[in-house]
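Chapter summary example.
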Amino acid sequence: MQKIPNIPIAGSKDKMMPADLYLPDTKDKVPVVIYAHGFNGFKDWGGFERIAAYFTKHRMALLAFNFSHNGTTPDSLMDFVDLEAFGQNNYSIQLYDLTKIIDWVMQVGGRQYPKLEISKLGLIGHSMGGGMVILQAARDQRIWKTATWAAIPYCKTPWGKWSRSVMESWKKKGVAYYENKRTQQQMPMYYQLYEDFQQHQEELDILKAAATLKTPLLICHGLQDPAVPVESAYLIKMAQPKANLFVTDGDHVFGRKHPDQDNALPPEMLEVLESTLAFFKD
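The structure predicted for these 282 residues follows.
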């Protein structure tokens, strides 16, 4: 496997999105899949190289990137040091970012790395990233196939279950805080996140987008997911009955942890990878 690390790609507001491109050891052309991380996530979460190695072993290229406003920086790839950017993030920004990543693959990546078969460009998204790739695939004819891992069915993270009083306080103060359980950081979210959703509800309707998909969709989810319940997978499946559904006895991250201290991927993650690879290879 060859890794080209931290390729700088300009995202929203010209903030750089470091991207890692993983290439298999072959001279033949191979499909390329873009991976979109989730809320409170980043491309290197949980020893992602193990996942990348699984794809390259089976003759597929993989590109993983950090969204422009996920709170990390090119100099601090795995720590949330830019909380102002995190607070200014929203779903429209993430869709813009994903489009720019796809543009790079199609316009630059395919030229610089001739083994990339850009006519076979797939998407994988985890959690919030799963919702983003469904939205993108529904509006982007360049996408070949789409897979989701523990995807959200609504663009309402994290306020979807907040009470009216909490919502009113958020509007009045202009900011609310979400605790990152791993780092114990209080992550700011400015009220613009909700305003952006209100202004673009049609464009951010994940279930509506799933229903309009013309290309294949795979939905993977864990039965023991406490963050995005497995019912979310069934909602997406009902919206798009032609989708493939794979459910495993796993949690939101399919047994992975960060920092990664194991030498092997958890069984639940391997099951998801096997299902995902079969989907892209079919």
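To summarize the output: The first strand starts at residue 2 and ends at 10.
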